Amino acid sequence: MDKKSKITTAILEAFEDGIYVINQDLIVEYMNSAMIEDFGDSTGKKCHQLMNQSEAKCPWCRSDEVFEGKILRREVYVPLVDKTFYMIETPFRSEDGNMRPFMPGIGIMAIRLRIPVVPVHISGLFEVLSRSDSWPKPGRCAVRMGTALKFTREADPKRVAKRVEEAIRSLSSQETAPY
Predict the structure, then answer these.
(1) Cα separation, 149 vs 168, whole angstroms
(2) How far is the C-alpha of 84 from the C-alpha of 77, rounded, in Å?
(3) What CATH number matches the domain at 3-89, 3.30.450.20, 3.30.280.10, 3.60.40.10, 3.40.50.2300?
(4) N or C end of the chain: which has fewer CB within 10 A?
């Protein structure tokens, strides 16, 4: 574990309140000691299995909104431990520059606004400006644009998001022309 990771883990462990991190598949990737004390170690399980011992999403779940970029602050009563928690839910940007799975927000916008979506991929951008950088470094980026995608009003937002993601990933695998 590098120095930055050790410091981050030490900070998370210093909190008396529970902290957990999930990915877009709702899999728990991290739990601090306080969270493990309340719920047991559920790293690798779905968050609803952790919080509600259920195979279905929790009734209070708003993860879709968080993964679309919203920051939520609210109180949630969790019957499993008979406690009310003040929850702060916030999205994270990629640490490693890899594209994460798309959420349905792009599909909702494309369908409701009746606008085409132009897939665009920018390679090299993470090397020029990563999450930890406050200023871009010199470097080269390549921009690839795909053909505009159009969707009907009856389209499913999740399928639209998947189609847009596939188009962008396809652009990312194309050869970059020499500069």
Answers:
(1) 11
(2) 4
(3) 3.30.450.20
(4) C
**Cα distances (angstroms) measured from residue 178 to each of 138, 140, 141, 175:** 17, 11, 11, 9
How far is it, in rounded angstroms, from Cα 67 to Cα 23? Answer: 9
From-to residues of CATH 3.30.450.20 in the chain: 3-89
Q: Find tokens 């601090």 and name the residue.
A: 32
pLDDT tens, position by position, 80-134 = 889 888 888 877 656 677 777 777 778 887 888 888 889 988 888 888 887 677 7
Helix (H, G, I), strand (E, B) or coil at 27: strand
What does the DSSP assignment read for 34-70?
HHHHHH---TTSBHHHHHHS-SSPPTT--HHHHHTT-
